Amino acid sequence: MPKSTKNQIMTTLAELLQAKRLDDITVTELVENCGISRQAFYYHFSDLYGVVDYGIQILLDELGAARPEDWHTAMERALTLLREHRTLVLNVYRAYERSYVESHVRRWAAPLVGARTRLAARSYAVTESQIAFMTDLLTQGLASIVLSWVEQGMPSSVIERMDDFDILVGGCLDYTLERLAQKNKR
Amino acid sequence: MGEVPVRVLTGTSFLSMETARRRGYHGADTTKTPQTERNVYDMAMMNSVKRAGFRALYGYLDKDPDTNIPKLMDWVDRFAGDGPNSFPDQRAAFRRVIENPDNNWYRLIRSMWTDIDGGVRRTFFENFMLNGNLIGWPIQEQARERYGCNIPWAILLDPTSACNLHCTGCWAAEYGNKLNLSFDEIDSIITQGKQLGVYIYIYTGGEPLVRKDDLIALCNKHSDCEFLCFTNATLIDEDFADQMLRVKNFVPAISVEGFEAATDGRRGTGVFQKVRRAMEILKARQLPFGTSCCYTSANLDSISSEEFVDQLVEWGAKFAWYFHYMPVGNDAAPELMPSPEQREQMYARIRAYRNSKPLFLIDFQNDGEYVGGCIAGGRRYLHINANGDVDPCVFIHYSDSNIRQKSLLDCLRSPLFMAYHDGQPFNENHLKPCPMLENPDKLREMVARTNAASTDLQSPESAEHLCAKCDGYAAAWHPAAQRLWACGHSREGCADACAPRRQAG
């Protein structure tokens, strides 16, 4: 079966999501719109949630890996892209439990935040576990901001404020790392 | 086939685990539960506790199997307590196995970590052990009680009657090669099965892999079930093995007749090498597989030899299922049925290997004692052929139900299946479990009473014709079966039964 079937399925689901929530769509409805059989759908995916996972993976591949210095630009690009597909994103988001989405956002954001933290930590004598602790805290903060933003209907003002968030993170990191390094010296 | 929006299913006990995880579902959502369905949700709650416990236990084993497998029984003992239902003897036996690294069963369990892909292993534990048994069994029990009929533990089905080989004497060929269960029909059988607690599906045929894309699609759709497949293995190629690795819940049972000459003699020139290639492809990807052998008067000595069993282990098989030749069909060859001496040899050899080889061996005709006799007729399994006929057994081609006309539950409540339900066990001696082979009068009577028809579409065979081929066999096997049963089940019985033989021998 050609790989394009997978993309065709994803594109059709994206179209359906312009009008309906994910949990109001059935596989039968999707395959009828797609012009394929149910077994062709299930050859590739376990369910519609699998298609969403696949779509997210493609999105992440498109965004590519960001350099730690550019992490907030990467965030801005990601949020802008999500906002461009606002209806679709909301129709997907509402079909999930918040805790599930949160764990995924954190998984995605953690390496980015980790790299940013590590970059700042280069000039301080801090331990690995201290870096991990700060990464975890900042990742949680970032995930919270993203989820609240989606729940508020994805206003553009939040994207504009990512600059401020970056300043907050930078200041917070420098201050805390310095204090931790002092503590380690004692 | 109609489909309900997924939201309606949220909170049911048969929600796919993967889907449930995605939605952050951790058990019954009692806030949305109507009071009338409380017991369903109590069960769902209990299941989520079982899942959590099982996953914790699995994670513990997976982290450091060498250290933690031997400690497993400390955990189990702590939970089991010392009440009357705490299985002290069984626990002690299991402890002896897992505390001895040289024990064959320990080596088999340990090989799950050295030879099998981590994702496939985890899926097997979740789908087979957790869903198929810990979670499925209580649902099956509840259904048995509620409906008063047999509820199976596994369902065997033929996706197609087609086969790419033309083996001598294959009973599957009787159905011809134009019949198929559609994807939607198999999907419906599995969906109905899961509602009754059945999470284990076994494909036979025909050659199921003629339909390999549909089988992968079904593995994907029912990612909480474990699928086993009897196959000649010639259609297992690199691409299919990659798909198996992707879906993680498909385990082949590869048919072998013995070594190269025997396999090619029955299945065709070059088949043996293709089978070996398939096993290498599977082994390279760390995919589990087993073998399936039919023993006859002609090949029994060779395929039950130690040399052959050691070869299976070396090839990488994790299980070996042995089936007694059944004289089914108008053109069957009754002379291929093993003699009583041969069957007794099989009995002794398989038991010896089970105590010495790192391979899970089952001889379906001689191992009735572990499952209370005949498991057919839906007691533990049933068979649905590629025409939709619901047979009590892969070897008993009589039916009064077709899955295209009745629900799975109604098939189980049909007169023929109820006759099995009411008649089982067909013999108190579980070395004589079958209503055909060892108790032919039982099948004659059940088929006559229920007006079940032959489902052999090529050449319908009467129950009388079939059972007549077994009368002599049953009478000849009886004395050995009685002696072995007495030996295996009481010391006094053994002394009485074996004394004359000892003197004679």
Describe how the helices and strands are arranged.
The complex is a heterodimer of chains A (186) and B (505).
Chain A (H helix, E strand, L loop, with lengths): L3 H13 L10 H8 L3 H7 L3 H16 L7 H14 L1 H8 L4 H24 L6 H24 L4 H5 L1 H24 L1
Helix pairs in contact in A: 1-2, 1-4, 5-10, 7-8
Chain B lengths: L5 H4 L7 H6 L15 H26 L1 H4 L3 H9 L7 H11 L5 H12 L2 H30 L6 E4 L25 H13 L4 E4 L8 H10 L4 E6 L6 H10 L2 E6 L4 H8 L3 H14 L5 E6 L4 H4 L2 H10 L3 E6 L15 H15 L5 E4 L17 E4 L5 E2 L6 E2 L8 H5 L2 H9 L16 H11 L2 E2 L8 H27 L1 H14 L1
Parallel strand pairs in B: 1-2, 1-8, 2-3, 3-4, 4-5, 5-6, 6-7
Antiparallel strand pairs in B: 8-9, 10-11
Task: Write a compact overview of the structure shown.
The complex is a heterodimer of chains A (about 190) and B (about 500). Chain A is mostly helical.
Stretches of chain B where pLDDT is under 50 for at least 5 consecutive residues are 1-18, 24-36
Query: Biggest sheet of chain A: strands, sense, closure?
Result: none
Bulk shape of chain B: globular
Sheet/helix structural class of chain A: mainly alpha
- End-to-end C-alpha gap of chain B: 66 Å
Q: Name the biggest interface.
A: A-B, 27 and 26 residues
- Strand count of chain A: 0
Q: What is the global morphology of chain A? A: elongated
Rounded to an integer, what's the Rg of chain B over CA atoms? 23 Å
Q: Termini distance of chain A?
A: 64 Å
Count all strands of chain B and give the number: 11
Please, what is the oligomeric state?
Answer: heterodimer
Determine the fraction of residues in helical runs of chain A and give it as a percent range. over 70%
